[in-house]
């Protein structure tokens, strides 16, 4: 009889085919943990750099630099895509492919950026922060892809993010900033080893988008092709390169197809054309001149770059030459040498933002050469074989790099402090505020494009806010302005208008036949609001002299009235004809009713050279402030002030900025 102790219990029996239970696992969580283990060290280096880039680009982006016409144009075009369903706020004439501002429009639409800012350009600048941070990440990955260590890759990305030269141009709404991430992605994909066909196709697609974002990036094509050719698997090289080339051609042809579908491929009467746009950009555009001509656009552009960051310019150019001797970055170094040489071609045009294309590769080459120099120096001390030339070169580069770092600290500190603390855009904001408060909404304005969207949003009719460049270059605008500049009421002058407006006969005539009514800022940041005299400058000067003489005569008579209790400063302003004629009439009537005290006149912001139109009036002889206010508000429409506000024991009386003509006869 078998003992029950030797027989297994039913509860302990295991069926032969039963599955073995293992601890429950979450595949996505395991995958994430595995990915973090592999890339944790890289993220520890990259994420702080991205954070620094985002902060540096965002901090005080509304204050510095001052808005310029170009970024206003790209933002207005992005706004037009989103709000008008059109490629541009004016006739699109193929000056640049539209993919760049289509991406800006996509960003602002997806994030609601336009609704977050009262100044439209700031929505575009926010988009630039996004594109720059993406470019920093791609540069870091590209540096790793060409064999740089994490320290060198992080140094390259950091230089690209915080160099004052980079901050100036990355903050500005340029199409180049949109194209840069795509170009970096193209080189990154071109270095693919696994899944090479997909990588090369992605490289072509990325490069195509880069070129359709900013056409000058086409200059990088030979060097991208070189990178792909030398990295291609020999057994499939012909196939992969053919596919990549075909895809790039198809992307390029999409731009041609756009023009063809719109019937604007070839020139024709009364229409723009792709051929004319290309001809202008490549052939007929005015040359920038020579770097040796201190009055040329070339000299001004390069001088601006130089003032922002001499160290990176010198070190980047030197690293481009040295990089030719480093196999892993040779195509990029050759591209940099070519792009620098291309700037100096005779009779060529040098775009101000051209440097944006150079910045990431300059930073990459500086890091690559520096890492190579340190490696060579370490090899020498570790008794590993290196040539005398390489040892000498490494020591020299390390010495130059140390000197550069020493120079960078005070240079970058000063420049970055300016970006973080200065408010260079205040004159633009103040000018827009003055226009909004004082210019009738039915007025016709010639403006810098940087404020076009804001003025349209403020209530001015779209057709009445005219980008100054379009006055005599756009048929649609010319049709709306049969009398040219004479059909406009005001012209707002910025540095862009002052430097570029001279090439337009209409704008120059508007400037010559206008007078300043308000001015904000100093130097290059000055913004003037000028009232256009449609009858011409000579007649306007005669009328102004007549009006000034009338104000002076009536003012001198009023100054003798004993009931008007004013200081010598106010009396002199009356005699000089500096008091608004409506104020003169009102004060004369007030003085006839009894004694009245008026404080010294103070000019409103931007109007220091104009008439005093704001007064502080204190009643006397038993009259109350409320009674005085009621009396002033009962004046007829011609003399009624814009506002009457109680202050202390008197009234702040403000008249509108543009008095009617002929009040004093």
UniProtKB/TrEMBL annotation:
Subcellular location(s) per record: Cell membrane
Residue numbers spanned by region Disordered: 1-28
Top-level lineage group: Bacteria
Keywords, ordered alphabetically: Cell membrane, Glycosyltransferase, Membrane, Transferase, Transmembrane, Transmembrane helix
Transmembrane parts of this sequence: 42-59, 126-143, 149-167, 197-227, 239-261, 305-325, 332-348, 354-374, 395-413
UniProt membrane topology term: Multi-pass membrane protein
GO cellular component term, pick one: plasma membrane
Keyword NADP annotated: no
InterPro entries registered for this protein in UniProt: LipidA_mod_glycosyltrf_83
GO BP terms in the entry: lipopolysaccharide biosynthetic process
GO function terms (MF aspect): pentosyltransferase activity
Record-linked PANTHER family: MANNOSYLTRANSFERASE YKCB-RELATED (PTHR33908), MEMBRANE PROTEIN (PTHR33908:SF11)
Name recorded for this polypeptide: 4-amino-4-deoxy-L-arabinose transferase-like glycosyltransferase
Phylogenetic lineage: Bacteria, Bacillati, Actinomycetota, Actinomycetes, Micrococcales
């Amino acid at each position: 009889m078998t003992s029950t102790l030797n027989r297994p219990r039913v509860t302990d029996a295991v069926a032969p085919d039963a599955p073995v239970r293992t601890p429950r696992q979450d595949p996505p969580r395991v995958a994430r943990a595995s990915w973090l283990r592999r890339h944790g060290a890289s993220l520890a280096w990259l994420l702080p750099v991205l954070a620094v880039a985002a902060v540096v680009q965002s901090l005080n982006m509304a204050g510095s630099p001052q808005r310029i016409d170009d970024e206003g144009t790209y933002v207005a075009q992005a706004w037009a895509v989103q709000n008008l369903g059109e490629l541009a706020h004016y006739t699109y004439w193929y000056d640049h492919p539209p993919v760049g501002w289509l991406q800006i429009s996509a960003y602002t639409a997806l994030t609601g950026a336009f609704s977050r800012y009262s100044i439209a350009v700031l929505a575009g600048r926010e988009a630039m922060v996004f594109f720059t941070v993406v470019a920093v990440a791609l540069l870091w990955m590209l540096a790793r892809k060409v064999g740089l260590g994490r320290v060198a890759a992080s140094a390259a990305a950091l230089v690209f993010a915080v160099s004052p030269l980079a901050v100036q141009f990355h903050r500005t709404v340029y199409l180049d900033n949109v194209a840069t991430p795509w170009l970096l992605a193209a080189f990154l994909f071109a270095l693919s080893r696994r899944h090479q066909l997909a990588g090369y196709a992605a490289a072509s697609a990325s490069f195509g988008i880069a070129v359709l974002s900013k056409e000058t990036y086409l200059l990088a094509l030979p060097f991208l092709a070189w990178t792909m050719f030398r990295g291609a698997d020999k057994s499939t090289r012909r196939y992969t390169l053919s596919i990549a080339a075909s895809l790039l051609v198809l992307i390029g042809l999409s731009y041609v197809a756009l023009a063809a579908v719109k019937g604007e491929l070839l020139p024709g009467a009364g229409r723009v054309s792709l051929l004319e746009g290309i001809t202008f950009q490549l052939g007929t555009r005015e040359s920038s001149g020579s770097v040796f001509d201190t009055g040329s656009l070339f000299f001004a552009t390069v001088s601006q770059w130089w003032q922002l960051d001499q160290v990176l310019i010198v070190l980047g150019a030197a690293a481009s030459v040295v990089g030719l001797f480093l196999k892993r970055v040779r195509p990029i170094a050759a591209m940099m040498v070519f792009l620098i040489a291309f700037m100096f071609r005779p009779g060529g045009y040098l775009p101000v933002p051209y440097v944006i294309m150079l910045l990431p590769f300059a930073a990459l080459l500086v890091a690559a050469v520096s890492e190579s120099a340190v490696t060579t120096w370490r090899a020498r001390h570790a008794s590993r074989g290196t040539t005398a030339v390489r040892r000498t070169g490494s020591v020299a580069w390390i010495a130059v790099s140390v000197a550069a770092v020493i120079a960078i600290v005070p240079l970058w500190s000063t420049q970055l402090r300016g970006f973080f603390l200065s408010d260079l855009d205040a004159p633009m904001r103040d000018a827009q505020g003055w226009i909004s408060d004082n210019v009738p909404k039915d007025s016709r304005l010639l403006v810098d494009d940087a404020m076009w969207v804001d003025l349209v949003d403020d209530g001015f009719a779209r057709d009445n806010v005219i980008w100054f460049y379009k006055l005599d270059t756009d048929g649609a605008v010319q049709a709306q302005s049969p009398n040219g500049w004479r059909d406009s009421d005001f012209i707002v002058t910025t540095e862009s208008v002052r430097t570029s407006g001279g090439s337009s006969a209409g704008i120059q005539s508007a400037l010559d036949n206008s007078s300043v009514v308000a001015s904000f800022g100093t130097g290059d940041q000055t913004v003037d609001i000028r009232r256009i005299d449609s009858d011409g400058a000579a007649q306007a000067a005669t009328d102004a002299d007549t009006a000034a003489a009338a104000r002076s005569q009536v003012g001198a008579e009023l100054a003798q009235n004993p009931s008007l209790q004013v200081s010598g400063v106010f009396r002199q302003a009356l005699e000089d004809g500096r008091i608004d004629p409506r104020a003169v009439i009102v004060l004369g009537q007030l003085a006839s009713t009894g004694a009245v005290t008026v404080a010294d006149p103070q000019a409103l912001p931007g109007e220091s050279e104009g008439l005093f139109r704001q007064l502080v009036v204190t009643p006397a002889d038993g009259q109350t402030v409320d009674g005085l206010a009621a009396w002033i508000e009962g004046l007829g429409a011609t003399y009624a002030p814009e506002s009457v506000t109680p202050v202390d024991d008197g009234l702040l009386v403000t008249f509108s900025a543009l008095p009617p003509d002929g009040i004093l006869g």
